[in-house]
Design brief:
InterPro entries: Phage_holin_4_2. The chain has about 130 residues and is mainly alpha-helical. About 80% of the residues lie in helices and about 10% in strands. The longest helix has 27 residues, at about 35-60.
Length: about 130
Amino acid sequence: MSIVWNFLLNLLAVSVALWTVVSLVPGIDLEPHDLGHFGAFVSAAAIFIFVNWLVAPIVRFILGPITCLTLGLFNLVINAAMLFVVEAFFNSFGIGQFSVQGFLPAIFGAVIIGVVSSVVNFLTHPLKDI
């Protein structure tokens, strides 16, 4: 039960983070088709979690030497690239239209997603021990 609960809390954190990014960053938009705004954000969050679970570790391993040379700052570039991967997956499923219009909005989006996810995970951490 704890695995499902942790996944749902993570889904909540990423959904809130994506909503914050779409609200604050010009150049990142999410337009739902059939599921409404809530369903579109939850679907985008699920895709984001899947991409960070499967694709991001492979990319981080391959680009590890560059990340070491830049003292970890290259992780921002990798996180921004993951937003483009999420955009491609989300749009291919036909759930809605997720667009990241340029690299600078992707960098800002990656930073905001990291900060908001960390805050929400911090606030929900006591619930993960249930």
